[in-house]
Each structure stands twice: as structure tokens, then as C-alpha cells.
Amino acid sequence: MRKIALLLLSLFPLLAVAQSGTTTRSPQASPSVERMLAGDYDGLYSQGPMPADMLLDFNRLYAIDLQRAKLRGANVKVNKLENVSYQVNRMMAGGEILYGDPITEMIERIADTLLRDYPELRDSLRFYTVKSTSVNAFSTGQGMIFVNLGLVAKAENEAALAFALGHEIVHYYRDHTWVELDKDHNIKNDTTRGATHDRFLTYHQRSRSMESEADSLCATLFYGKSRYWKGVTDGVFDMLQYSYLPFGETPFDTTLFDSPYYKLPRSYYLEQVKPISARDDYDDSLSTHPNLLKRRIAMRSLLGNSDEGSKYLVTTPEEFEEIQTLARWECMRQDLINGNYTRAFYNSWVEYMQCPDAFEWYPQKVMCQSLYALAKHKLYAESNNSIQSTDRVEGEEQQVVNLFRKVQPNELAMITVRFLWQHGGSDPQIMRIHDDMLNDLFGKADFRRDYFLATLDTAAKSIQQDTTAVNSKYDLIRQKRQNVRNEDSRRYYFADLMQRDEQFVNWFNNNTMSLDEPAAERYGRSVMVMQPTYAVVNGYKHRMKVKESLRKEQQLLEQTHTIVRQLGGNPVDFSTESLIASGDGGRYNDYVRLCEWVRENSSIDDKVSMLQAVDIQPLAQRYQVDYVTIPLVVNVENLYAFDPIVEFAKLLPEVVFPTMPVYFAGLNQLTLSASHTVNVNTGQSATAADVYTVDHNGINRQLAYESLAESFGEKKGGFMGHPFTVEAGLTVAPTFLGRLIWNFDIPVVAVRPTLGLNWQIGSEACLHLQADYNGSRYDIQRVGVCHDVNTFTFALSVRDGASFPVFWDAFYFGLGATYALVDIKEPAHVYDNTFHRGGILLEMGKNRMLTNRLSLSVNARLNVTIAKFWTDYDYEFDSLMEPYMFRSDFRRRVNSQLVLNNILTYSITLGWKP
Fold first, then answer.
1. Cα distance between residue 627 and residue 684, in whole Å
2. Where are the beta strands (DSSP E) in 693-833?
3. What global pTM score does this model have?
4. How far apart are CA 341 and CA 385, in angstroms?
5. CA dist 671 → 425, 543, 558, 697 (Å)
6. Is 148 helix (H, G, I), strand (E, B) or coil?
7. 23: buried, middle or exposed (CB in 10 Å: 19+, 13-18, 0-12)?
8. CA distance linking residue 305 with residue 522, whole number of Å
9. DSSP H or E run through 463
10. What's the pLDDT score for residue 196?
């Protein structure tokens, strides 16, 4: 369509070059906008098939970027280019990109106007809108330009938006992205302090030069040659200067929540709000952009400040206002989703005061939703964590923030009930939260139902006794409030509604207005598996290991699908890979809605039920799912610089515990692993999460299992629900010490068959029983006669995973006791056939889960056997003592063999979880 439009413009130049102030109106966009603003707004979503940029996975995108870099002669480090490709890939698959919607269509038409004389450049650019409330736009080296909703919402007119767009086009046109990637290669690698500071300044100076170039070329090439208004300079930079403020500076009505017979304490409001402090002449020596004053002066010199040109070329003022209203509504909705309730309330208040009557319904809805969310947080979380600090806000918004921080939780519940009744209308969602807040008023807020009724009954009786003393029931109530000073005046808050609104009285007394909803259909254990997030980061270099992250991310996704099936569920793949494979725009919009619902869920305190700014039920019905699960792993490696002394110290215990160096190597990492499963029908969630040092695949699987199993009501102990492990393997003991000391005729090492049993007794600990057999054959008398001694060793220990959440796939330490049964085959006549010895042990090991049932364990054990291996008889006794001497010598040598064979052992076993 765009190429056809450009062809038509080239054939009919008179249509393109119209008089200043005339407009070109898109027949496709406006009806959609009008329909949404008139009462069909449920979020802003894309239209049409997915664009090609969204159908590129990381590998294909990286290959294209690598080729682009070679063609431009850019000397870019591979890891830097990988990170850029990864970030762009994630941006396109993050669920925040809009295409084909009315806002993006308007941006496309503005770009057509700016690049009318640059058709090749126009063909290389693609424009997208980002569901972000920040006032920003940015371009990439791939030719994608992203415009945040916040920029559209704050733009004074279409011309201001066009200038911002032209600025980003210059960044692409002048290859600024590739210059930024290449800059490290053009700065000398001097590590002195002064050179580091100079390099830092050089980095930012180059950024400032690029921003200045983007401004100047926009003014001379693109915006300057267009028919847009040349006096746009102040409007553009005012928008940037005050970008952190809400949509407007409408004074907040401090009587909004008052009723005729109850007013909020004046201490809840500020006598004077904090003045707006933003300046345009700030110090920019360490900034990536020149300060706004410098940019204003430079642009005025290039564009002038005349009224030449038009503020609107592709829209009318009315159409631009409608599209901007749509952007503002979506910003308000995003604030709700992200838990920024005070900003959502104030912005919706501003919109409510400024919107025409036909469009005021959605701002009222957002005010109701944000007020409800604030009340729920204050009642249940019992904190102001969901409200920003009053000192961090400027202007009229500070009045709202201060109010919600100071108002009491039960008082806020009372306010919310009244406000929802008056402004909620017949919207089903508002009716649901209205009923819920009324229950909280008489439950969590601890008001009695008759608290607001007793005063009215008394007032009615007083009126019957003396009707001449007052003119109305309301005068009586005012008089009663003055006479009874100690009575809580909040009981009068609903007095006017009680007298005039019979429907409110019936609902308030009996809750007869509750919405009768059909029960949501259940689909068993169908689970929507979202794309996991798996980030492996080099903490010392502050760099992400992209390919390793993606490989582990795909592995975690496949494992999550397997776990769902193992628990008897049906996984529904909603990963990035499945989205790319489908190429379906409808599925992409479902993916966006799902991402928004997940973000809303994560922004809410665990004690608070979901606001449901995003209705997930249509999605759940379409895909027949009851649960959504989201795995997350962040592994930060190389937290500290290499220290030879520390590394040498780590190697010292290797003689005793070979696994110790590997363990200490893991101490240079920090890993967060979590898995979150949410029931889409009830909003109840199950989260399994922990922070540990080493990145364990088994732990990641276990946490995914725990959250799913808890949601299904089948949570069991042990790894993947298996608390027992049966082990079999080999134990190796270095017996050369016995050979050196006693000249035993034994091997240098003894290899013993081993059996074991693990029983998990907690999230981090287990009981471990191990048995091994050692058969020894040696010349006890050193006369060439060999004797057989069989030793059965049993060890019972408690193993603890230290800081690890799951023992089954972690380093562990153990402490326990041993029991040795020594069986002497011959010569039996010189000593008892068997004897027993005990001992204590200290162990350390490493478990690794190979599959969900098969494990590999490596163990090092220090065992002190309690056995006497020295003699205390006198060799000078006569020959009558010779048999005793032989028995003592035999005991001494057997005990010493037992001690030396067990003092240090190493085991390797395979385990099976039945």
C-alpha cells in the first residue's frame, strides 16, 4: 500500500504539494480510533500479519547484522554485535511492539512526508510503536525505528512528533549505530586513571556530536525540506524537558472524595506542591546528549521561529487529538499493568477533566481500577510499597501521591466503595471489583454493616419528634455532628446515598447487586508455557553470553514441556520460536495480551489479588488452558577479578576433598532461578525460587516441577517428586599407607563395590546410607602365609546442600557415623571370627542429575575409625606369652588396616529414583 501511495504521489504532484495547513486524511485509521474511543477500548493491539522483522530468530538476525557490518567496513567485536542482535531480537519478541495500528499508521505517513525526496531511504526503514510510557524514540542499525507511546502522548502536535522522527531517521542515515559499536577500536587502550577519564569523556563527546548531527541534519534534510511548521523548536524541547511529568498540570480537586457529610482531613493534602524543577541548561559534560538549551539555540538558528509551514500534514488537529488520546489511554493502561497506580490515577484524572463527554468513560474506568488497586495494597500488604515517595514527585501529581500515602487503609476502602458506585457505571469488570471492595469494607477494613446505618435511624426518630427545629434530615445530621463531637464522623460518609439512592441501599445492605457470572470452564491441566528467560552474564566484563544463554533457554523450555507431561498435563507452546513459526498476527496479539497479563501479575504484591486490567479469560478459552508457567534463570559469572593468592588457597584442600576446588570455583557465581505458575481462573500462583552460587540444570528443573506440582495439588518431596534414590558404584581407598607402615601384602589402592540409599528429609538435606565391601588378603606374619579378612563398612550421614535449594543436584557437606564389621576367615584359632569397630566421618560431594531419575554422585570422605592399632605388651615375656603376642599383633595389624583403608575414600555412584 505504501509503495502504491508513493507512486500515486509521483504521478500527481499537485496532490502531494498542497497549500500550507491542508491535510491528508487516512480513510483506514480514523474509524478504528473513533470506535475504540467510543466504548470499544480493551487495549491497543496490532493489525495484519506479522512483519518480516518479527519472523527472524536470533541466528538469522545475527547473520544479517554480521553481513551489514562487513559491508560497512565496521570493525565490530563479535560479542558486541551478538549483544546488539540479541537485544533487537528480544525487543521484537517482547510483546510490546505494535504494527498496523492507528498510531503506527500515522507514524508511517509522517515518515512518507519527511522522506518524500528519499525513496530509497524510505524503503529501507520500518517503523514500530512501543508500548512504553517513556518519552523516547530510537533507531537500530537494521533500519527499524521505534517510537514509544509516551512520545506520542506528550507531543504538542504532529510537527513535534515529525521532528523527533526525523532525528531518529538521521541516526540510521548516518550509520550512528555502527559508529557506536566500532568506537572501542578507535580509542587507545590506556588503563591509567587520567586516560580512563579522557576515554569516558571521549565516549560521551562522540555521542553528543552524533546527537547534534542528528538535530542539524534533520533540520536541513528531512524536517527542514518538508512543509511542517518551522516554529516547532520550543515545543519539541519542552516535551523532552518535562518528559517525566504526567500528561498535564491540572490542579487536583481536593474535594473529589468528600461527601456532603464527611470530608477527608485537610492534613492529607499539601498546602503547596513541589515546583517543577526541570531545567534546559544543565551540565552536560558527562551526558550522552547536549543540554536542551544548546539544542534549542542550534535549531532556532537552522529553522528560525516563524509560523511558516503547518503543524498538521497527514492528520487534522481533531484526528491527531483522537490518536493522541488513544496513546494516552494505552499509557494509562500500561501504568495499571506495571503497578504505577498513582500515575495512572492522576493521568486518568487529567484525561477525565479534558476529554469530551463521549470519551470520558475510559478515564473513569482507569480511576476506578487504580483506586481499587491502591486500596487492596494498603489493606492487605499493609504498606505503601505500591506508592512512590512524595519527595520524588513534582507538580500537581504530588497532591495525589501524598493523599494516598497518608489516607488510612480502612478509610481508603470506604472511599473506593463510594467512588466505584458513582463512576463505575455498568462495566462488568468494575461491578466485580465493586462487590469485592464492599466485602473488604466489612471484612478486612473491619467496619460493621450497621456502622453506617445506626446514625440514620437515630436521625429519622429525631425528625419525628421535632420537625420544626431543622429544615431537613441533612440539617439534623449536621446538628448531630456538632453536638456529638466524639462520634466518628465517617459513619455519615454514605448518608446522602442512603437517603436518595434506593438501589445503593439495597446493594449496600444485602449486596444484591453482585454480578452473577457463569463459572469459568475448566480444561484440566493444560498449561500455557511461555518463553523462558535464561541469561548467562559475565559479571566482571558486564557482558551477556548470548549463544550460551539461548542454548540453555531452549533446553529449559523443552524440559518444562517434559515436566508438564510428566505431571499429566498438556503443554501449549507460547514460546518465541512457536510464534515465529506461526507468523500469525492474531497469535501475536494473543501473545501480547499474555505478556501484559504476566507483567500485571508480577507487579502485584503476593498478598493482593490481581486487578485484572488485562482480561485473560478469552485467551484461556481460545487455547483451552487453565495455567500459565514462566521459568526464569539469571546466572552471573566472574563476579570478582582473578586473585592468584585466593585461587591458590582454594586448591589447598584438594588432597582431602577433590571436589572442593570445583565448589569454590562456584563461589564466583550468583544464580537466581525461579518458576512461576499461575491459575488463570483464580489468579492463584505458585512460585518456586531461590538464589544460589552455581548454575544447576537439575535445580532449574526441580523449581519448574515444584511450581507446577503445587498448582496441580500434587507437590511431593524429593527431586521431581522422588524422595528416594538407590545407588550402586565403586569406592576407592588409597591403601598404600598400610603397605608402607606394616608391609602388608595388599594393593596400592582398594576398589570396593558400593551400594547406597538416599532419603530426602527437607528441601536441602537428606539421610544417606552407604555400604561397601572390602576383601583383604595379606601376609600377617610376614612368613609367606596369607590370610583373608573381609570388611563390611556401613555409613549413615546427614548431607546438607548448604545454600542450595535442592540437594539432588548440588554440592553437599555431610556428617555421620560408620560401623565396620570385620570377618576373619583364617587363622580363626588365633582370634575371634568377627569383631566390630565404629567411627565418625566428614564428607563432601557433588550430585548431578543426568535425567529426571538417573543421577551421578562423586564423593570424598574422611573417616576416623575408633580402633586401637598399637600393642601394649612386653616383648621380653617368656615363650608362654607367645600365643597372646601373636593375637595382639594380629589385632594390631587388622585394626591398622581398617583405619588406614577407611581414613580417606572416594566414591562414584549411579543413582536411580524409583
1. 10
2. 724-734, 749-760, 765-778, 787-800, 811-824
3. 0.81
4. 11
5. 48, 15, 20, 11
6. strand
7. middle
8. 64
9. helix 454-465
10. 47
Residue with cell 592468584: 644
What cell does 477 get?
A: 445530621
> Is 686 a residue whose pLDDT tops 80?
yes
User: Which of 571, 578, 677 is closest to 623 using CA atoms?
Assistant: 571
Joined grid coordinates for residue 209 = 556530536
From the list 576, 908, 572, the residue with the least C-alpha distance to 754 is 908
pLDDT at position 881 over 90? no
Give residue 189's pLDDT band: very low, low, confident or very high (50, 70, 90).
Answer: very low
Nearest Cα neighbor of 685 from 721, 710, 662 is 710
In angstroms, rounded to a whole number, what is the distance separating the alpha carbons of residues 132 and 164? 16
Taking alpha carbons only, the member of 50, 53, 51, 61 closest to residue 550 is 61
Percent of the chain whose predicted confidence (pLDDT) is above 90: 36
- What's the rounded mean pLDDT across residues 321-329? 94
Question: 328 to each of 247, 321, 324, 333, 348, how far by Cα in Å?
Answer: 8, 10, 6, 9, 9
Which grid cell is 801?
Answer: 546442600
**What are 845's three cell numbers?**
560431594
Q: Do residues 911 and 759 touch, judged by C-beta distance below 8 A?
A: no
Name which of 584, 538, 578, 607 is nearest 376 in CA terms: 607
Give the C-alpha separation, 797 to 467, whole Å: 87
Mean pLDDT of 536-551: 87
DSSP letters of 294-329?
HHHHHHHHHH-S---SBS-SSS-HHHHHHHHHHHHH
894: nearest Cα among 862, 869, 875: 869
**Distance between CA atoms of residues 886 and 185, nearest Å:** 81
Task: Please tell me the distance from the alpha carbon of residue 863 to that of residue 838, in angstroms, as a whole number.
Answer: 10
User: Please, how many CA atoms are within 13 Å of residue 735, restricted to the half-sphere of its CB?
Assistant: 26
Grid cell at residue 82: 551478538
CA distance 319 to 323: 6
- With cell 485509521, the residue in question is 29
Amino acid at 265: P
Residue for cell digits 560431594?
Answer: 845
Q: In angstroms, rounded to a whole number, what is the distance separating the alpha carbons of residues 403 and 384?
A: 11
Q: Please, which pLDDT band fits residue 290 given cuts at 50, 70 and 90?
A: confident
